[in-house]
Design goal:
47 residues, 0% strand, rod-shaped, mainly alpha
Amino acid sequence: MWANGETQAEISSAAAPDCTGEMQALIDEMSGFIKLLIVDIMTFWDA
């Protein structure tokens, strides 16, 4: 998963300004955090 995202970010920054690659990395980081948050919430409600 991480290797895929890193490759995608590198391709994005090569094709567009650096800020686009940074945004893609930030979005990937946020989506990963949100997934962890959802898992935590589901675990909390199950308990």
